[in-house]
Write a structure and sequence with these properties.
5-stranded parallel beta sheet; 12 helices; 7-stranded mixed beta sheet
């Protein structure tokens, strides 16, 4: 075939449906699960939708992506929300992001945070450190580092944060003492909302519904319950059975048991790629909050955030927790789902390792796409856009 696509998650589906929209139907998708959607799959728990891979929403910032997805699930089937996310820091419950909302804390805590921000390394113009933990203290000040960023990242990713690089932290804003002081005096946030400041969520379904509909539109082009066991990188053959002019891989490179024809240093680079696993667990209690999700840096709690289902999924109740698998304490009375591949880890050596892998593979017409194909912490709207653009690029080459 012309294109063989590994994985029927948002990336693979978007690439495939983009091909189909351009009149190209010479492709096939291989998917290890029994249904499409990847990490964005949904099920039903307690008579309401439950997103098994954690909190996933459709950001409004990419109109072309929204328009593309609305072809499969019309806009009138979605609700639009303004983000309301909270952080529980000690006895304070404030809006996210923390650096913009210190003014919502008790006055004594505001004073302590302001004092710490005033002497943060980036505000004193001291040299930028290279280790992750040192960088967080330098960038945000002792209080934000100790009370939020360090414990939260330890819970979400791993306990030894110095295994992580700092290259991905540049998007964090400088925490200006003057701006923070002004926000505390004026009682308003000084920074923009982070991602998903506004988002869509289905009215009657979980987030997985849109991917099921995309898959249904190309149902004759997907083979389910088929794990990629082997990849012959020289001959572009998967599982000794499926071959193509071009292979698009949206699955984790580390999940492929055998990669034939790859040089030893490439196989070593793949072994360097690390990830974290999460468990989502359902709780039937309704919480007295308007927030759609809440972050919990407290190390005494095993979970790092909760999704308050009834605040974005009408006529439902309860909430679900998201917990790193290493920290998870199983409760057999709760409905829970394990996601082995949840977040790619931004380890120190990842940029070089994944670049080597992608360059080696692309020379052989095997292209990594999306969160796992590119080993980047992309949200679903980003991978849809990447899939659309890749289809355009590859078809232009012909």
């Amino acid at each position: 075939m012309r294109f063989l696509i590994l994985g029927a998650g948002p990336a693979g589906l978007s690439f495939a449906c983009s091909l189909m929209s351009k009149g190209i139907d010479d492709f096939l998708i291989i998917e290890k699960e029994s249904e499409a959607g990847g990490l964005c799959r949904s099920t039903e728990v307690d008579d309401s939708p439950f997103d098994i891979g954690g909190g996933h929403f459709l950001d409004v910032r990419r109109p072309a992506v929204d328009e593309f997805l609305f072809k499969y699930m019309p806009e009138e089937e979605w609700d639009r929300y303004e983000r309301d996310s909270k952080i529980v820091v000690g006895k304070n419950i404030i809006n996210s992001p923390i650096e913009a909302n210190i003014w919502q804390m008790d006055i004594e805590d505001q004073i302590e945070y302001l004092k710490a921000i005033a002497v943060a390394g980036c505000n004193l113009k001291t040299p930028m450190p290279q280790k992750f933990t040192d960088w967080i203290f330098w960038k945000l000040g002792d209080k934000i580092a100790e009370d939020y960023m360090i414990p939260y990242n330890q819970k979400m990713f791993e306990s030894n944060l110095d295994n992580l690089g700092t290259y991905w932290l540049d998007k964090l804003p400088d925490v200006s003492f003057e701006d923070t002081l002004r926000s505390c005096l004026e009682h308003k946030a000084y920074a923009k909302q982070p991602g998903h400041a506004e988002f869509f969520y289905p009215k009657k379904y979980g987030y997985g519904e849109v991917w099921l509909r995309m898959a249904e539109s190309i149902k004759d082009k997907i083979i389910y319950n088929t794990k990629v066991e082997s990849l012959d990188a020289q001959n572009k053959i998967v599982n000794g059975e499926y071959s193509a002019d071009c292979i698009i891989s949206t699955i984790p490179w580390t999940s492929i048991s055998e990669i034939i024809g790859a040089e030893d240093h490439i196989l070593d680079d793949i072994k360097k790629l690390r990830y974290s696993s999460i468990v989502t667990e359902y709780h039937e209690e309704n919480l007295d909050t308007k927030a759609q999700w809440i972050y919990y840096p407290d190390p005494k709690l095993d979970y790092h955030r909760i999704l308050v289902r009834h605040n974005f999924c009408p006529d439902s109740r309860g909430y679900w927790t998201e917990t790193n698998l290493v920290r998870y304490k199983e409760d057999k009375t709760k409905k829970a789902f394990v996601n082995e591949y949840a977040y790619p880890l931004n380890t120190i050596d990842k940029p070089v390792a994944i670049r080597n892998v992608l360059e080696f593979m692309e020379k052989r017409n095997i292209i990594g796409l999306g969160r796992w194909g590119e080993w980047q912490h992309y949200n679903s709207d980003v991978v849809v856009e990447l899939g659309m653009k890749l289809a355009d690029r590859l078809l232009e080459k012909k």
